[in-house]
Design goal:
Elements (H helix, E strand, L loop, with lengths): L2 H12 L3 H20 L10 H16 L19 E9 L2 E6 L2 E6 L2 H5 L1 H4 L5 E7 L2 E7 L5 E6 L2 E10 L3 E7 L7 H14 L2 E7 L6 H15 L5 E3 L8 H8 L3 E5 L6 H8 L25 E5 L3 E5 L13 H6 L5 H4 L16 H8 L4 H11 L5 H4 L7
Parallel strand pairs: 3-5, 8-9, 8-11, 9-10, 11-13
Antiparallel strand pairs: 1-2, 1-4, 2-3, 4-5, 6-7, 12-13
Bound molecules: guanosine-5'-triphosphate (GTP), magnesium ion and zinc ion.
Guanosine-5'-triphosphate (GTP) binds next to helix 9.
Length: 391
């Protein structure tokens, strides 16, 4: 960041009240961390200030009547034939980018191909230049959000799931495959640090009898308390689909969750023309068949953009130290501020206000247990969910 940008940042920050400044700083810190996590090689490491200035710029533009950050780029063709586009699909060493009405096939430069699982995701905004018969990606533009997970082969590395989404829709099935609240908790940790908002969809509500429905609603109670949209849906009988459409209106979102929970079916239910492939859950083990094999971005009527992703067999959060994990349990925050130690991990420390809130019933005991499992590193989903439903 140069001198002029620093001065501008200082001026813009000076115009905010303390609450607003803290809120922005927190968002910028999340984006900064996400960017650092997925960086490799020796590209310039961005500073927190870069993200702060970007958020402030977006705010200013929004206030001036522009779209805050158009997720589908305007068809800006430069004099030299260069374009800007939104990545709608990624394959090995290449991607498809939507630039206005054109879906452009583009190859990736060698350095990006080498680290493409962390360096490029559907939803990314890219710059393209003509190359051979098609195009080549020349730059991946700064992101306003990035959802990541731990690389299943190397937990110290991150993989990018989707970029620039406003809402991460965590999709689980009420039944078949069975509902695992701890999986929801792991997803919510990842959403919290992504810079996007969360919504929770419990699909296949049609499979529940009255008693089971009551149990599921009780299980969902702590999530309603977190202030995120929680929807009971059924593609089969249409329950909750209109509510989902309302939540997603005007947003770019990504559907994540185990194979077979109905992500592609929900997408199709939102609009029949989306026509994503769906597949039956195997009768024997209740597991999905991994019908969707790669992520794609769909434009739906009603100003909704959805990234459909393949079901993930094992979803693990990356960068799992206690302090960042606790951030993912947003109901802890008001109590955490009152813990005796500032860096309290809410595990064995004396004077822990979070543990006291659990004992008082103000924080869900089940959610706290889920946090402890994550912190203690014994949240191996293969054990916790049973070998048949590894997630
Ligand atoms: N009973 C019932 N079945 C559903 C519902 N939604 C989806 N299904 C069925 O569940 C199966 C899996 O649905 P998909 O939409 O392919 O699931 P997915 O989450 O996209 O799975 P992957 O692409 O493998 O990640 C299909 O047989 C669907 O017909 C629902 O609301 N109720
Ligand atoms: Mg699918
Ligand atoms: Zn504490």
């Amino acid at each position: 960041m140069d001198k002029r940008q620093r001065r501008r940042l200082r001026d813009l920050l000076a115009g905010l009240d303390v609450g607003e400044r803290n809120r922005l700083t927190k968002r910028a810190a999340k984006l900064h961390k996400a960017a650092l996590r997925t960086m490799t090689g020796d590209a310039r490491r961005p500073e927190l200030q870069d993200f702060l200035l970007r958020l402030l710029d977006e705010q200013e533009k929004a206030a001036a009547g522009f779209a805050a950050a158009p997720s589908v780029a305007a068809p800006t063709a430069g004099m030299d034939g260069s374009r800007r586009g939104t990545v709608v699909a990624v394959t090995a060493g290449a991607c498809v980018a939507q630039a206005g009405d054109d879906a452009l096939d583009a190859v990736l430069p060698a350095d990006l191909t080498r680290r493409q699982q962390s360096g490029l995701a559907v939803g990314d905004e890219v710059l393209l230049e003509p190359f051979g018969e098609g195009h080549r990606v020349t730059a991946v533009l700064p992101r306003r959000s990035l959802l990541t997970r731990a690389d299943p082969h190397d937990a110290r590395r991150s993989r990018a799931i989707a970029a620039n989404v406003d809402i991460v829709v965590v999709v689980v099935a009420a039944k078949a495959p069975p509902l695992h609240p701890r999986l929801i908790d792991r997803y919510l940790v990842a959403v919290e640090r992504s810079g996007a908002r969360a919504a929770l969809v419990v699909n296949k509500a049609d499979l529940l009898d009255d008693d089971e429905r009551r149990d599921v609603l009780a299980l969902l109670q702590p999530y309603r308390g977190l202030g995120l949209p929680v929807l009971l849906c059924s593609v089969t009988d249409g329950e909750g689909i209109e509510g989902l459409r309302d939540v997603l209106h005007g947003a770019t979102c990504v559907f994540v969750g185990q194979s077979g929970v109905g992500k592609s079916s929900l997408l199709n239910a939102l609009h029949a023309t989306a026509a994503a492939r769906t597949g039956a859950v195997r009768a024997g083990d209740g597991r999905g068949r991994h019908t969707t094999s790669s992520s794609s971005l769909y434009e739906l009527p009603g100003d909704i953009r959805v990234i459909d992703t393949p079901g993930i067999r094992r979803f693990s959060v990356d960068d799992a130290d206690a302090v960042t994990l606790a951030d993912g349990f947003t109901e802890f925050a008001p109590y955490a501020a009152r813990c005796r130690y500032r860096d309290c991990a809410h595990t064995h420390e004396p004077g822990c206000a979070v543990k006291a809130a659990v004992d008082d019933g103000a924080i869900s005991r089940r959610r706290y247990a889920s946090y402890r499992k994550l912190v203690d590193g014994d949240d191996d989903p293969q054990q916790s969910a049973g070998a048949e439903t590894t997630v």
